[in-house]
Design a protein that fits this description.
The complex is a heterotetramer. Helices cover 67% and strands 0% of the residues of chain A. Chain A contains twelve helices and no strands. Chain A has helices at 32-55, 64-71, 77-87, 95-107, 122-157, 166-174, 178-192, 212-249, 252-259, 264-301, 307-317, 320-348. In chain A, α8 (212-249) packs across α10 and α10 runs parallel beside α11 (307-317). Chain B has a single domain, classed as MetI-like (MetI-like fold), CATH 1.10.3720.10. The radius of gyration of chain B is 26 Å and the shape is globular. The two termini of chain B are 44 Å apart. In chain B, 51% of the residues are buried. Chain C is an alpha/beta fold. Chain C has one domain (4-260): Rossmann fold (3-Layer(aba) Sandwich). In chain C, α5 (131-144) crosses α6 and α6 (161-173) runs parallel beside α7. Chains in contact: A-B, A-C, A-D, B-C, B-D, C-D. At the A-B interface, α1, α7, α8, α10 and α11 of A face α5, α6, α8, α10 and α11 of B.
């Protein structure tokens, strides 16, 4: 959301004098050093997220399981114990022991059971919702990034033209909360114009299947939420890319390309945009968490059956196991998206393949 | 005497020498606010100032109490009595929006202050230190960047039965400092190696002076930008949380109004006077903050400003900055 | 006397800002085929503007406000550079006049292998060449400048400063241009590397017979390598003569000042001003 | 008489993935007040490392730096006293002055830090310093660095270095970023100041010609080692070491060129 440009990565190498140029030795085609560094970082982040997750329910008061058990008698004692272990309610154990048990459960893929969904395993509940979120948010984010980046490259290249007017417009759209834009879209396109259904991922009475009709329904239902996400998040990418382009256009190699008699189109894409996109990918990686956080609210607005709606429902029902599970899964997805962005970066920027800084 | 064609001396402050303390204070203040001295920043500051005043004088400005129920006037479109109409309970929407400003401004600024303090401390330290200490602070920053903030805030907020605004601001601040810290770290790292910092070290300046007097002044624009950015993010997060209903709906802010409007089906019944104003207010304050940041951005990186403006100025002279071929303008005008 | 390659008459470039800056004023000079013309002057004197202006490489607000630049092609055709449209200009560049740029560090695209950047030139200017022919031509160029064809797939950051500058020279050589404009090609390099590169340029010039415009502020260097030297100051050529006469018998006061700014390596000690 | 001894100093850096790199290898020399030593070498030769060790921005891996026979204290008042004795002029006058502060601030700081003059005398002392580097005090004192030309800035940097009345000055490529026609002016200023105050100057450069003209002795550095040292004219005119000879042969020398080429000009290229 900030209009501040991400700084180009600062090489934190060892300085050998002020004028000295560091020698560069061989390189491998696969940027192992870069990738192992990132892998260590992701493992650390994963650990941090899981640990946060461990402490979250331990901050609340009262025993949710007891409350639940008093309402539902057909719960096996084992299930209740497992639930307590996950939620940190087995207070007779030390915190460390609880932490170890928690990890043991996680490693077995056991995220507990959802009180809200009739004690079904949390993993099962989430795995039904996840594809919808990945499909909607993932698709919309990638589309928005692509349009914003390509648009920003063109706007930056044709600086001073009428295209400059796009920047304030998209920035305005990105200062509006997602949910409000979504609600407006529903009011306008669904209620008044009737072009799109009001919510949900597919029509009532349909069962998910690989049929043309069903897919059509999904697209019809998904258009409005996806379009809203794209419109609301486009501005940041466009502004970032445009600013990067302005910086890159002053670089010598762009001037060289023009002196070489390269056609404009080639200079724009192969020389200028190709370099300007690198910081853009880095900020993409770091912004995914922010974007995903913002977009899950869209699922509530559009009653979309994804993990965002799951999280909000769980929050309202105080279903802690589900909340924890959803948070973990969202974090994991963000990490995976980050890794993909990093790998893309590593292959787009040959400098990461350097064996020596 | 030395001559240099590249720098023309500015209009001489030396000919009319003012007493020294004044000069120093004035130049200091002048340079501290230089980043806001452009049209975009000033427009943004004016809009922001308007909202701050509304928040401060909400009690005086609002025609009704935000919770005053009037059963005879439900779902009223705008009228002379109710400029922005009424809600399902006959509450005055305008009064709600005016009172709602307070929560938004307070939380936005409080969260941004918390986040900026953390960002400056972590960012500058991580930028000044070297080796594993710097790396681990940087890793910590990135963890906070990567972990999705809003879901975490939703969960944390749901742990409280009735979270006061202070707590909300604190949570937003604690989760929102990372981007600023990252930008500040990068800038500090580049400052640390500048010759003037090395010169200060070689002169034996103590560390606190190097950071406080040599580096911080050069980081001010970035700190301001990161502050403004965090205010934007905090306001968006606050209104989102209120809309979801995680934050109790009895303390008014714009998100709460939208929560009620949505719950009562205002969006489906075209009661635009209820849902448009709060949303537009969020957008207006967002635009104000972006304008401020555009201004700061262009101050930090003059290329950004010059790009558009210069290009348009050139166009007036019949030149195209994108032209890869130098224009020819001979006096005879026989070709172009 | 050798025949002319480029005739520049009353050439002026103005930066159209407020107030307008006349960066190059009424420059007239004739570049002879096969010579090395040194262009000397301090920063801001207009030497780079002149060199870039010759092939209309300057961006707005720069405007060519007068004069003509005529290129006498090997084929006998005369090209008035000012009358070329954008597409003709694009084809003209690099094919007839190529450049070696100041910062070898930034002149190469950091994300593309140097081989691809060399092939780029052929792809655009010699569309008839096959992929294999392009690859071979690029490899050959790297061999010629002694970087070696095994470096085709290297990226700029993997090469030393000297190597990068050689790659730039190879690129400038690609289409066998008749004129090479060299803008401070060795300023950022160490003396030993600089000397090697100069030697190489000299050798290539003998082999391929191109003309060189060599821009630098390093007058002693220019005196050694140029046939003729033009001294520029504030957008004007204040003196243009053979290197030897500039050294032994400078006419202009500014030329004398500039000469006296360089202490002599082996001459009398302490006597800095001639 | 102040004597600085650089005694068998070695400095190694560990570089990720490349092991140890020796920036300085067993370097020994002595700098006395009133004397100018030219330190000549190519980039990566270790000249900047020497400057950084002298200003205590780095510490040697082995060996010792002594001032008047005393090793340099690592911190505290002793280090401050040492730094007061030795000051540095940086290469880039655009970067060595803080854009945020006025010229007055830049010159007052060392005066205050080392309590050179009483507070009441600060203004006068700043003006005196500016005059000493041939700048008009009124014209520059309340300006910011970006309002001055490169040459003016470098003069301010020299004034700052002189403020604490040091005995030794390290000048790291002080003119390489300046315009050609003002370089000699700055170098002459340094030489004059050195002579007037009896300063010991370490002039670090890659330019053999100015090194010869402005130094009493020259040290040639190659890959962290001293390959040759001696009186300036001896080293430049009668180089013994093959590396020094190479350097000299590569440096432009129109005098010799026109003497040998006599008529057949353009032969070098």
């Amino acid at each position: 959301m900030t209009a501040v440009q991400p700084q180009p990565p600062v090489q934190d190498g060892v300085e050998v004098g002020t004028t000295a140029t560091t020698a560069v030795k061989g390189h491998s085609r696969v940027p192992w050093r870069f990738l192992t560094g990132r892998a260590a970082f992701y493992l650390f982040t994963l650990w941090a997220a899981i640990t946060i997750n461990f402490f979250l329910p331990r901050m609340m008061k009262g025993d949710a399981v007891d409350q639940y058990l008093s309402r539902n008698r057909n719960v096996s004692p084992e299930a209740a114990d497992a639930l307590r272990a996950l939620l940190g309610l087995d207070t007779d154990k030390s915190l460390l022991q609880q932490y170890v048990d928690y990890w043991a459960l996680l490693l077995r893929g056991d995220l507990g059971v959802s009180l809200l969904h009739g004690l079904r395993p949390v993993t099962e509940v989430i795995s039904q919702a996840l594809p919808w979120t990945v499909g909607l948010v993932g698709f919309a984010t990638v589309v928005s990034f692509a349009i914003g980046t390509i648009g920003g490259a063109v706007v930056g290249w044709r600086r001073g033209s009428r295209l400059d007017g796009l920047i304030p417009v998209t920035t305005f759209l990105s200062t509006i909360p997602y949910f409000w834009l979504g609600l407006l879209a529903i009011a306008l396109f669904s209620v008044n114009l009737g072009w799109f259904p009001i919510g949900k991922a597919y029509g009532v009475g349909m069962t998910p299947q690989w049929s043309a009709e069903f897919i059509g329904q999904v697209i019809h239902h998904g258009t409005l939420p996806a379009a809203t996400i794209v419109i609301a998040s486009l501005g940041g990418w466009m502004l970032g890319m445009r600013n990067m382009m302005l910086t890159v256009l002053d670089e010598d190699y762009v001037m060289v390309a023009q002196a070489k008699g390269m056609p404009n189109r080639r200079v724009l894409w192969r020389y200028a945009a190709r370099n300007a996109v690198l910081p853009q990918i880095q900020s993409f990686a770091l912004s995914i968490g922010f974007i995903v956080g913002g977009t899950i609210v869209m699922e509530m607005v559009f009653s979309y059956p994804g993990v965002g709606k799951l999280l909000l429902d769980a929050t309202n029902a105080k279903d802690y196991a589900l909340m924890q599970g959803v948070f973990l899964v969202i974090t994991l997805s963000v990490l995976v998206a980050n890794i993909l962005a990093d790998v893309a970066y590593a292959f787009l920027d040959p400098r990461t393949r350097q064996t020596e800084a | 005497m030395t001559t240099d064609l590249r720098t023309q001396p500015a209009p001489a402050p030396t000919t009319q020498r003012v007493p020294r303390p004044t000069t120093t204070v004035r130049t200091r203040l002048g340079s501290a606010f230089a980043m806001f001295r452009n049209r975009k920043s000033i427009t943004g500051l004016v809009i922001l100032g308007f909202f701050v005043l509304v928040a401060a004088f909400a009690d005086v400005l609002a025609p009704y109490s935000p919770t005053q129920v009037d059963n005879t006037a439900r779902f009223q479109p705008p009228s002379a009595e109710h400029w922005l109409g009424t809600t399902h309970l006959g509450e005055d929407v305008l009064s709600q929006v005016i009172h709602g400003t307070r929560g938004v401004i307070v939380v936005g600024f409080l969260a941004a202050i918390i986040a900026t303090v953390i960002a400056v401390v972590i960012g500058v330290i991580a930028g000044y230190l070297r080796g594993w200490r710097s790396e681990s602070l940087s890793a910590l920053t990135n963890v906070f960047l990567v972990i999705p903030g809003l879901p975490l805030i939703i969960i944390v907020a749901s742990l409280f039965d009735d979270p006061p605004l202070i707590v909300i601001a604190a949570v937003l601040g604690l989760t929102g400092w990372a981007w600023g810290a990252r930008v500040l770290r990068a800038q500090t790292m580049s400052l640390r190696n500048r010759d003037f910092v090395q010169a200060a070290r070689a002169n034996g300046e103590p560390l606190r002076r190097i950071i406080g007097m040599e580096m911080l002044p050069n980081l001010m624009a970035l700190i301001a930008a990161s502050f403004v950015g965090t205010v934007t993010a905090a306001i968006l997060a606050l209104t989102t949380l209120s809309y979801i209903g995680v934050i109790p709906v009895n303390t008014y802010n714009w998100g709460t109004i939208l929560n009620w409007a949505s719950a009562q089906g205002a969006f489906r019944q075209n009661q635009w006077w209820w849902f448009l104003p709060p949303g537009l207010c969020i957008a207006a304050i967002g635009v104000a903050l972006s304008l401020i940041n555009f201004g700061i951005d262009e101050y930090v990186n003059p290329r950004l400003r010059s790009a558009g403006e210069r290009a348009r100025a050139m166009k007036k002279r019949g030149l195209d900055v994108n032209d890869a071929v130098t224009a020819v303008r001979t006096t005879t005008k026989d070709d172009a | 006397m050798r025949d002319a390659l480029l005739t520049v008459r009353d050439f002026s470039v103005t930066y159209d800002v407020d107030p307008p800056v006349e960066a190059v004023k009424d420059v007239t000079l004739e570049l002879r085929r096969g010579e090395i013309l040194g262009l000397a002057g301090e920063s801001g004197c207009g030497k780079t503007t002149l060199a870039y202006g010759l092939q209309r490489l300057l961006k707005a607000p720069a405007v060519i406000t007068g004069g003509s630049v005529v290129f006498h092609d090997r084929s006998g055709e005369d090209v008035d550079v000012a009358r070329l449209d954008a597409e003709q200009m694009r084809r003209f560049r690099w094919d007839k006049i190529s450049m070696v740029f100041q910062g070898a560090m930034n002149a190469l695209n950091p994300v593309a292998p140097i081989g691809a950047q060399l092939e780029d030139v052929f792809e655009v200017h010699r569309p008839g060449m096959s992929r294999a022919e392009r690859r071979e031509a690029a490899a050959e160029l790297l061999d010629i400048v002694k970087v070696g064809r095994q470096r085709l797939r290297s990226f700029p950051h993997e090469l030393s400063g000297g190597m990068r500058q050689r790659v730039m020279i190879a690129m400038a050589l690609a289409l066998r241009p008749q004129l090479m404009v060299m803008d401070e090609p060795t300023t950022a390099l160490d003396v030993l590397v600089q000397r090697e590169i100069l030697r190489q340029i000299s050798q290539l010039r003998h082999e391929f017979g191109f003309t060189v415009v060599f821009i630098t502020h390093d007058l002693p260097l220019l005196l050694e390598i140029s046939d003729r030297i033009a001294i520029m100051r504030a957008g004007e050529i204040v003196e243009l003569d053979t290197a030897e006469r500039i050294w032994t018998n400078p006419q202009d006061e500014y030329t004398k000042t500039l000469l006296s700014s360089f202490p002599r390596l082996t001459g009398d000690r302490g006597v800095v001003v001639r | 008489m102040t004597v600085l001894e650089f005694d068998r100093v070695t400095k190694t850096y560990s570089v990720r993935g490349a092991g140890q790199i020796k920036a300085l290898d067993d370097v020994t020399f002595t700098l006395r007040s009133g004397q100018t030593i030219g330190l000549v070498g190519q980039s990566g030769s270790g000249k900047s490392t020497i400057a950084r060790i002298l200003t205590q921005l780095e510490t040697p891996t082995s060996g010792q730096v002594r001032l008047d026979g005393q090793p340099i204290p690592r911190h505290g008042a002793g280090l401050r006293a040492y730094r007061q004795q030795l000051r540095m002029v940086f290469q880039d006058p655009f970067a060595s002055l803080n854009p945020y502060h006025s010229i007055r601030y830049h010159l007052e700081r060392p005066l205050r830090l080392d309590a050179v003059v009483p507070k009441a005398g600060l203004d006068d002392e700043v003006r005196r310093l500016l005059e000493r580097v041939r700048l008009e005090p009124d014209a520059v004192i309340d300006r910011r660095p970006h309002e001055l030309s490169g040459g003016q800035r470098q003069r301010v940097a020299i004034a700052r270095a002189l403020a604490s009345r040091p005995r030794l000055l390290v000048a790291d490529e002080p003119v390489s970023m300046l315009d050609v026609s003002i370089r000699l002016g700055v170098l002459n200023l340094l030489a004059d100041l050195g002579r007037e105050e009896g300063l010991g100057v370490l002039y670090i450069t890659h330019d053999l010609a100015t090194a010869r003209h402005f130094s009493d002795e020259i040290i040639v550095l190659n890959q962290g080692r001293i390959v040759e040292s001696g009186p300036a004219d001896d080293v430049i005119l009668r180089p013994q070491d093959p590396y020094t000879r190479q350097l000299r042969a590569a440096s432009p020398d129109p005098e010799k060129h026109f003497a040998s080429a006599s008529g057949a000009h353009g032969g070098a290229l």
